[in-house]
Design the sequence.
């Protein structure tokens, strides 16, 4: 499978410049803040979000200074939400590193998240990037709505397939959609083009999340995600919803009781995962993921053929074939 480094080829120089600009955008005169933001930068992941921004811009036009600001805005606001999420979830680890709240406690974590949020807002307002700010603010709102909808449904475990897709559209896909929309918006594209690229990103984001959910049912995955963690967290993912929809009332009660009251019982969770696999739920979820991937690729094919479009196509394939 093609590597992320190969996918980055048309925009590698831009990613390197972006990293310097992003570091500068987080600077503060407060030493404690600088220490924490340096720690955040060291923990950066695959740079998927900036890649979507720059490749989307490259598909439709020239990468400008505004494109760098778009990528920084998204990273600042998204990093702020991650810092706050770790406080909400009382999580001590993120991507194999200690979380901010684990090292500096909740009060400082919340304030750091607020600081990053304000830096993102100011970065946009100082340059009159109102269109970019609107795109990212709408995504941030949807991410919050998606999280709250998931919490509400986890309490009652009454989630249907349409609700599941609404949750992941808001919670995960809206962010990737905003990356793609901001990328093309930074080049001066019209509203129709921005809308088309936003929808492309939404399809990719949905496929990405289904792939992430499938890791929960694969003990051999290299994602670092523990086997059965979604069940422990009472998340109703697509393979599990499929099993529920194809079970009689007695088995449904057993499934819901397992997720609700016995989600830390390893033997029982293992039995539930085997039932999901036996029902065809994993195959169904995989097919749905591929359906959204194909929808994304079909939309992408409507844009001009150039190196950025090819890398974006490869990035879509990468998101659904990754093993972590």
Sequence:
């Amino acid at each position: 499978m093609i590597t992320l480094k190969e996918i980055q080829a048309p925009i590698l120089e831009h990613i390197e410049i972006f990293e310097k600009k992003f570091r500068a955008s987080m600077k503060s005169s407060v030493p404690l803040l600088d220490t924490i933001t340096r720690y955040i930068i060291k923990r950066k992941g695959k740079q998927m979000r900036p890649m979507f921004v720059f490749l989307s811009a490259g598909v439709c036009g020239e990468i400008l200074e505004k494109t760098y600001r778009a990528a920084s805005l998204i990273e600042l606001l998204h990093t702020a939400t991650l810092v706050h999420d770790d406080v909400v979830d009382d999580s001590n680890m993120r991507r194999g590193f200690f979380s901010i709240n684990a090292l500096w406690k909740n009060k400082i974590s919340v304030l750091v998240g607020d600081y990053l949020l304000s830096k993102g807002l100011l970065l946009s307002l100082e340059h009159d990037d109102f269109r970019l700010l609107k795109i990212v603010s709408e995504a941030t709102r949807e991410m919050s709505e998606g999280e709250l909808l998931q919490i509400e449904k986890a309490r009652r475990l009454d989630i249907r397939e349409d609700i599941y897709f609404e949750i992941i559209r808001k919670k995960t896909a809206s962010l990737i959609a905003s990356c793609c929309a901001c990328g093309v918006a930074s080049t001066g594209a019209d509203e129709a083009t921005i809308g088309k690229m936003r929808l492309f990103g939404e399809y990719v984001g949905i496929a990405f999340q289904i792939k992430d959910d499938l890791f929960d049912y694969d003990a051999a995955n290299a994602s670092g995600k523990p086997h059965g963690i979604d069940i422990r967290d009472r998340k109703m993912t697509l393979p599990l919803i499929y099993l529920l929809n194809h079970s009689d009332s007695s088995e449904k009660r057993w499934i819901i009781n397992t997720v609700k009251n016995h989600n830390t019982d390893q033997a029982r969770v293992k039995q539930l995962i085997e039932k999901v696999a036996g029902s065809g739920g994993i195959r169904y979820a995989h097919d749905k993921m591929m359906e959204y991937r194909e929808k994304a690729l079909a939309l992408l094919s409507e844009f001009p053929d150039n190196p950025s479009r090819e890398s974006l196509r490869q990035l879509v394939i990468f998101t659904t074939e990754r093993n972590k």
Notes: The chain has one domain: 13-307. The chain has a mean pLDDT of 90.
